[in-house]
Design goal:
Elements (H helix, E strand, L loop, with lengths): L9 E9 L2 H15 L2 E4 L3 E2 L7 H4 L4 E11 L4 H14 L8 E8 L3 E6 L6 E5 L2 E10 L4 E4 L10 H19 L1
Antiparallel strand pairs: 1-4, 1-5, 2-4, 3-4, 5-6, 6-8, 7-8, 8-9
């Protein structure tokens, strides 16, 4: 029987879907106020993987990733998701979201996303929030690779590059 082992802190990030740059800037500021300074901001990437968000967000839809300076205690992911849901609500107009915020964390071995939806590959974290391992680090390929149930956009080569760079940020932040 082993003793409980607490995990190392992880690199907090948020994926942001938006169609209006002004709302992206408001979300950026709200996230920064809530979670601290931004260590890295990914480029705006066209997001055309589904029609699901078009009615709510408009089009074209972009995705950007923000990675934060402050490392995260992994068990706080559910609290982070609840906080990003509040930010989405505050930035909503006429009952529709203007941004979709997808928080998660990155460790040397995996990328975990938070969700309000249960499914076979998700574990309950508490407070109505679930976590899923979205990507795993492949040492041979030297990049994160998608899990069997990963959203299609996370299989994009640019996402993989962004997360590989962010992985280096995690090692630098952990060394401090």
């Amino acid at each position: 029987m082993g003793n409980p082992r607490y995990p190392d802190k992880a690199l907090l990030f948020t994926g942001i879907l938006y169609s209006n740059e002004d709302y992206y800037i408001k979300a950026y500021k709200s996230l920064e106020d809530s979670f601290g300074g931004i260590a890295m901001e990914g480029p705006p990437l066209i997001w055309d993987y589904s029609e699901h968000y078009r009615e709510e967000l408009g089009k074209p839809i972009y995705r950007r990733f923000l990675f934060f300076n402050n490392l995260l205690e992994q068990e706080k992911l559910s609290q982070i998701k609840l906080a990003t849901n509040k930010i989405e609500h505050v930035l909503s107009e006429n009952g529709k979201r203007t941004v979709n915020l997808d928080p998660g964390y990155l460790t040397p071995a995996k990328i975990v996303l938070a969700s309000t939806k249960d499914y076979s590959h998700r574990l309950y974290l508490g407070s109505g929030i679930y976590g899923e391992v979205t990507m795993m680090y492949d040492k041979g390929k030297r990049q994160y690779i998608p899990h069997i149930n990963t959203y299609r956009d996370y299989n994009d080569e640019m996402y993989k590059r962004i997360f590989s760079i962010a992985r280096r940020l995690l090692f630098l932040a952990s060394a401090r």
